[in-house]
Specification:
elongated; six-stranded parallel beta sheet; alpha/beta
């Protein structure tokens, strides 16, 4: 299908929003790109870097006459943003997002939109521990997965258009329900981030005399906790919005740690090796 938008608005021109804007520019998929968000400093930098063409004077102004509007701000403000922009979205336009949480948030957004505006929820599985528009790249989504979570209300043509957009970005597009998305990513993304933050805090708070334990950390600690450098604001919102699923996964993780703890306490080397071997085989299979 021929893919081109006369005007695109990116709300939240950070790593993901900025990278998608770069894709649109690099591929010639947009006539013009307007950036919007809370930080004028970020928008000015995006403009200077050539990531966007214009800065919106407020989000409502920014979305006027846009064919495609992308929510790339923290998921915690999605509802407030949609409430503000909904009356200004033109009929026939597409609203999509890059949020890490779907579930009830999708239903909330659908209910806020006027008739004729098509919402396609999305989540590209790409990123870095560093964030911000200066880190954006048109190659960020190459060979990455992008999950779309349509509902019975999702317009079929709009869904195909958003699929084509992510294919153009180099992503592998998959679809699933919003509920399935949130349960899966509470395990493979949200739990690891919570664990990494907890690990850093645990070691940072542990001092022996004048020694700060974290100062002795090596490559293993840095590799395990790399994602703890991610945006605290973003992960706060994700944990609140996907709370029940994340709590379930934390409890499962605690149970797994408890099995290791028990084996250590009982000096059960056979059990420890079995637990470690199972995890090692699975991890090596990830590449």
């Amino acid at each position: 299908m021929a893919l081109h938008f006369n005007k695109v608005t990116i709300i939240g021109v950070g790593l993901i929003g900025g990278s998608l804007a770069r894709v649109l520019k690099d591929k010639g998929l947009a006539g013009e790109i307007t950036g919007a968000g809370r930080s004028r400093e970020t928008l000015e930098l995006a403009l200077k870097l050539g990531v966007i063409d214009h800065m919106g004077h407020g989000m409502s102004h920014a979305v006027e006459n846009s064919d495609l509007v992308v929510l790339a701000s923290p998921v915690g403000v999605f509802e407030a943003v949609v409430r503000e922009i909904a009356p200004h979205l033109k009929k026939g336009s597409i609203l999509t997002d890059v949020g890490s949480v779907k579930g009830g948030l999708v239903r909330t957004i659908e209910a806020l939109l006027p008739a004729g505006v098509h919402y396609v929820p999305g989540h590209p599985i790409a990123g870095k521990e560093k964030h911000g528009v200066a880190e954006s790249s048109g190659a960020l989504f190459l060979d990455a997965k992008c999950i779309l979570t349509p509902t019975e209300k999702t317009d079929a043509q709009a869904l195909e258009t958003v699929k084509a957009l992510w294919h153009a970005a180099g992503a592998k597009v998959l679809t699933m329900s919003p509920a399935a998305h949130d349960h899966i990513f509470s395990a493979v993304s949200h739990l690891p981030h919570a664990a990494a933050y907890a690990m850093v805090n645990t070691v940072a708070e542990y001092n022996e005399g004048t020694e700060n334990y974290i100062a002795f950390s090596g490559a293993g600690f840095r590799d395990f906790t790399r994602i703890a450098a991610s945006s605290p604001e973003m992960w706060r919102d994700i944990c609140i919005l996907n709370g029940p699923n994340i709590v379930e996964m934390i409890e499962r993780y605690q149970a797994s740690l408890a099995r290791i703890k028990k084996a250590i306490q009982h000096q059960d080397g056979v059990k420890l090796e079995k637990l470690f071997q199972s995890a090692s085989v699975l991890r090596r299979g990830l590449g």
